[in-house]
Design a protein that fits this description.
The complex is a heterotrimer.
Chain A: E1 4-15, E2 18-29, E3 33-37, H1 44-52, E4 59-64, E5 67-68, H2 74-79, E6 82-84, H3 97-109, H4 123-135, H5 151-164, E7 169-173, H6 184-192, E8 199-203, H7 207-213, E9 216-221, E10 224-229, H8 231-236, H9 238-245
Parallel strand pairs in A: 3-8, 3-9, 6-7, 7-8
Antiparallel strand pairs in A: 1-2, 1-4, 4-5, 9-10
Helix pairs in contact in A: 3-4, 3-5, 4-5
Chain B: H1 2-35, H2 42-60, H3 64-85, H4 95-116, E1 133-135, E2 140-142, H5 143-165, H6 167-177, H7 179-184, H8 189-215, H9 221-224, H10 226-236, H11 241-261, H12 266-280
Antiparallel strand pairs in B: 1-2
Helix pairs in contact in B: 1-5, 1-6, 1-8, 1-10, 1-11, 2-3, 2-4, 2-8, 3-8, 5-6, 10-11, 11-12
Chain C: H1 12-18, H2 29-40, H3 45-67, H4 76-91, H5 98-120, H6 125-145, H7 147-150, H8 176-197, H9 200-210, H10 212-217, H11 222-248, H12 258-271, H13 278-296, H14 298-315, H15 319-335
The chains are: A alpha/beta, B mainly alpha, C mainly alpha.
Chain lengths: ~250, ~290, ~350
């Protein structure tokens, strides 16, 4: 039996009259490689925002490792082991790649209140950041400002920051969007080399990425869970092919 | 009875002052709401208008109403040029850059007016028909205050109709609420902003002229009353015509009353109240929504 | 050819980061200038003292504006809080020993910063701008009204400031003690700020400035961090104000005025914010210009200042130091074609 890392219980979120997410029951297991797919406007990003605490649900509960975190704000949930990347880059654009990752690692280690020691003196933090940078093939850009990098490379920084938090739950919101296909394998490799203890949830439109990565797929349509199953089951389901996959997946 | 009349005349005076505050501030609120542009030079446009109006009356003998129209048109034209040539470069800049740029404009306006016209106060001489008192039945009251209130009501009703009933008004409201959505609908937000900016500066010019009688008109005007205009906008809410109207009346009446009853602590009270109001409703007292 | 795998920490950019806090060769220069000034211009020490105070004030503003990205128009609130602490304690004969008075000024200003920061820093953008402005105006008005304690509009003059350490007289006509005293305090404060901005804490402030939302997403307690920074900055501004009151032996409403807040903001921007020496360069440039031009052509000075601000906002957002950095980059690029 696998343990449950992250769980939602009848979670809903309304924006005025619009129900963006309705009655979602969702489980992310330890070691999961889980994909969340669905057409644009299906409520996927809203769902991620509910999981991370950017938004509060209108009703329902969010459980992290068996603990009710519904009322815990975003920053504190990160401390409990949940990290995410953003669909649209949210980076420290004026800072270097190394500084971007350093910030994440130092927040995780809780040394960010240290005012009296140079950041450069924490070799352990730099070393850890450099390992992440190497894992995402960003070494040549280490000292460059993020704003000077091509968009695709910035996406890699986005992931390096999230990995710097050493999460137990990693939520990736369209990590490969805007990454040239020649480089998208870097992302998959980096995620593939993560520990088996980490549960990963990925939102992705690129079906190649989804079917290469995911061991389990949830399909969301109109704010509700439409179907859930293994990639084989999902790919074989004629209804899903009709509703969502369409021509997108030839496999 | 005496007290009642006293209170009534105090409220009338405050309302008249509030009308001027509204006429000056409404453009600032709409342009800030549209573009999120922090325009600290708004008071400078009010001052420019005030000078055009008062000087054209004093030196060329233009009548009051045509002078107001002249002030509106010239200031709107000048601000149009400024917007296209300079402001437009800073839409996507940081708030800090916008603050610096507009403070720079204020300094330049103050210095230019001092150099060209001189540092002294310019007296607005009202036409005979607006001088003196008018009988309101229960009390005598200054004709000019009644005139200001009437003008203010006409303007607020006109603006409200323009906002609610015209195409451009609908576009402005939509943009204030959700800029990205409006742009994706193919509305040219930049052009919308240029038009509102010029119109709002024209309104400020009117306010500068109309208020010169009791606010005075000297080169420091652009800075002296800026805090009041900003308070009105912050309390009324960005991009809200009616909100700014209520806020202007509130501040106008409060200021008038406080100066009368607690001449010493009045300003302290206004600043304190503004802080409390903004902490309670950071989007403004009359913003009407949370986001 | 053998390609040796270099350790990640030996990557050039990593080494540069690890050593970025080390002093540069030219860093003693401003302090040598300051000491040279003392000997070269004994008749300008009053001006020099004012300049050093302004640098300290600009340094405190840089911490919130340049590093944490908080835009404030009301930083004189803390300068004034410090100045009035020193002034009122000395005038009413409660306490006037210079160094401990300065510490009290720092504490009072820090408390004002903490109190206002706790409430103000919940907001942002225009609202925050307005609230900083209103807080300062509120204090100014309070100082104006509390005539019995603060001297009201006239302020408190002829403050009895005893000799520094019981040895060095504060002579208002020959402000030699003042100059050196302020210089030493500035140096200590500078060392503190310099350490802070290169620390992990300083790095996290830069993160907040660059992307507040992402800071939440990496688990940073953003508001607490901002309040901490705001309070520290307020304390330093309070020290600057306290020094000003001690050096001049008076305190008045100008210490709390919008003029002073705008002046320090302009000086910092002129030099280049978010650079620890921006305040130095900006204050020198601004004060020198103001000192010589403002008296001769006050209106022309204001016009030029306005034009300068417009030009900076449009074309030179990083101030004088930013222009210098761009030039340096260009020269280096020329000499190193690779």
């Amino acid at each position: 039996m696998t343990a449950c890392l992250l769980e939602t219980r009848t979670v809903s979120r309304n924006f005025g009259a619009l129900a963006a997410v309705s009655d979602v029951e969702f489980r992310l297991e330890v070691g999961a490689r889980h994909a969340l797919i669905g057409p644009n406007g299906a409520g996927k990003t809203t769902f991620i925002n509910l999981l991370t605490g950017v938004l509060r649900p209108t009703q329902g509960r969010v459980m992290l490792k068996g603990r009710d975190v519904t009322d815990i704000p975003e920053a504190q949930r990160v401390k409990l082991g949940i990290a995410r990347t953003f669909q649209i880059n949210r980076l420290f654009r004026g800072l270097t790649v190394l500084e971007n990752v350093y910030i994440a690692v130092s927040e995780r280690l809780g040394i960010a209140l240290d005012m009296f020691r140079p950041a450069g003196a924490r070799r352990d933090v730099i070393e850890e950041a450099m390992h992440l940078i190497a894992a995402l093939k960003l070494e040549d850009d280490t000292g460059r400002r993020v704003s000077e990098l091509p968009y695709g490379r910035q996406r890699l920084v986005e992931i390096a920051i999230a990995l710097g938090l050493k999460p137990e739950v990693l939520l990736l919101d369209e990590p490969a969007a805007g990454v040239p296909s020649a480089e998208s394998h870097i992302i998959l490799d980096a995620i593939g080399s993560l520990s088996e203890q980490i549960g990963v949830l990925i939102i992705e439109h690129d079906m190649d990425v989804v079917f290469r990565f995911a061991e389990r797929i949830t399909v969301m349509v109109g704010g509700r869970i439409f179907a859930e199953g293994t990639p084989k089951e999902i790919a074989a389901d004629p209804e899903i092919r009709a509703v969502y996959l369409g021509q997108a997946y030839h496999g | 009875m005496i007290l009642g009349v006293d209170v009534a005349s105090m409220i009338l005076g405050g309302v008249a002052a509030g009308m001027v505050l509204f006429i000056v501030s409404v453009g600032l609120s709409v342009t800030m709401g549209l573009m999120g542009f922090v325009n600290l030079a708004h008071g400078a446009f009010a001052m420019l208008g005030g000078y055009i109006i008062v000087l054209s009356m004093n030196y060329w003998g233009v009548h009051f109403l045509p002078a107001l129209a002249l002030g509106f048109v010239v200031t709107a034209a000048v601000s149009f040029a400024f917007e296209r040539l300079l402001y437009a470069r800073l839409y996507r800049a940081t708030e800090l850059d916008q603050v610096l740029f507009t403070i720079g404009l204020v300094f330049m306006a103050i210095a230019s007016v001092t150099l060209v016209v001189g540092p002294e106060n310019q007296q607005l001489v009202l036409p005979a028909m607006l001088q003196g008192q008018v009988d309101l039945g229960f009390t005598q009251y200054r004709t000019y205050s009644i005139f200001l209130i009437a003008i203010g009501i006409i303007i607020v009703v006109g603006l409200w109709l323009g906002f609610e009933r015209t195409r451009i008004g609908a576009q402005i409201r939509a943009t204030v609420d959700n800029r990205r959505m409006t742009e994706s609908l193919g509305i040219n937000v930049d052009r919308l902003f240029t038009i509102t900016f010029a119109f709002g500066s024209g309104m400020a010019a009117l306010g500068g002229g109309l208020g010169a009688e009791f606010l005075g008109l000297d080169p420091q005007y652009a800075l002296k009353y800026l805090v009041y205009f900003l308070i009105v906008v912050a309390v009324g809410g960005l991009g809200r015509v009616t909100g700014v109207f209520y806020a202007a009346l509130l501040i106008g009446v409060l200021d008038f009353a406080l100066k009368k009853y607690i001449p010493k602590g009045g300003t302290l009270f206004i600043f304190g109240l503004t802080i409390l109001l903004l902490l309670w409703r950071p989007q403004g007292l009359f913003a009407g929504r949370a986001t | 050819m053998i390609v040796a795998a270099i350790k990640p920490t030996e990557h050039l950019a990593a080494l540069a980061f690890a050593g970025r806090h080390r002093p540069r060769v030219w860093e003693p220069a401003p302090w040598i200038f300051a000491i040279a000034f003392y000997f070269a211009f004994p008749n300008y020490l009053g001006f020099g003292t004012e300049l050093l105070v302004t640098i300290l004030f600009a340094l405190s503003l840089d911490l919130v504006l340049g590093y944490a990205g908080i835009i404030t128009l009301g930083h004189a609130a803390f300068f004034g809080a410090g100045a009035y602490t020193v002034g009122m304690l000395a005038y009413h004969g409660i306490w006037n020993e210079p160094i401990s008075s300065l510490m009290l000024a720092a504490i009072v200003a820090a408390l004002v910063g903490l109190g206002s920061g706790l409430v103000l820093l919940r907001t942002q953008g225009l609202t925050l701008l307005m609230l900083t402005l209103c807080t300062m105006a509120l204090l100014e008005e309070a100082a104006n009204l509390g005539h019995e304690y603060t001297g009201g509009f006239d302020g408190l003059a002829s403050l009895p400031i005893p000799p520094l350490l019981g040895l060095f007289e504060f002579n208002p006509l020959y402000p030699r003690t003042q100059y050196l005293y302020v210089l030493i305090v500035l140096f200590i404060a500078f060392l503190f700020v310099r350490t802070l901005i290169y620390s992990p804490f300083g790095q996290s402030l830069a993160g907040i400035r660059e992307n507040t939302l992402r800071m939440h997403a990496v688990g940073s307690p953003v508001r607490a961090r901002l309040i901490t920074c705001y309070t520290i900055s307020a304390a330093i501004a309070g020290i600057a104000g306290g020094l000003w009151a001690q050096a001049n032996a008076y305190v008045n409403l100008t210490t709390l005025s919008l003029d002073r807040a705008a002046m320090v903001l302009i000086a910092l921007i002129l030099g280049g914010y978010g650079r620890i020496y921006g305040g130095f360069v900006g204050a020198v440039a601004y004060m020198a210009l103001a000192h010589f031009l403002a008296k001769l052509y006050p209106t022309g000075w204001q016009l030029g200042l306005g034009l300068l601000l417009v030009v900076i906002a449009l074309f030179a957002r990083n101030g004088i130091l930013g222009i210098g950095e761009a030039l340096l980059r260009r020269i280096r690029a020329k000499h190193m074609p690779q």
